[in-house]
Write a structure and sequence with these properties.
Elements lengths: L1 H9 L9 E8 L4 E7 L11 E6 L2 E5 L6 H8 L2 H17 L2
Antiparallel strand pairs: 1-2, 2-3, 3-4
Length: 97
Amino acid sequence: MIAEARAAISDTLKDPESAKFRYIVTVPAERVVCGEVNGKNSFGAYSGYSRFYYRNGSGHVVDYDSIFWDEYVQRCAGPTVQSEIDGRVKRIANDRP
């Protein structure tokens, strides 16, 4: 499911080959994958990480004014997903010297 999500999200980017992913979390019961993606813009520079979600073969990069924001919040911003992401961020921070 993660490989499918990566492919679908990458295809939405200006430069699909440049996609970098982080904080990927799955919600198997709903067949949802959430996380953040970064990709290169038209100038060849990385544009910064944006949230994404993938569900039922369809991937969406979302921000606050996206038509998919409410669905992202419903599926990806719940306590279970947020606690998983927070735990990963803490582990990364603790691994730094």
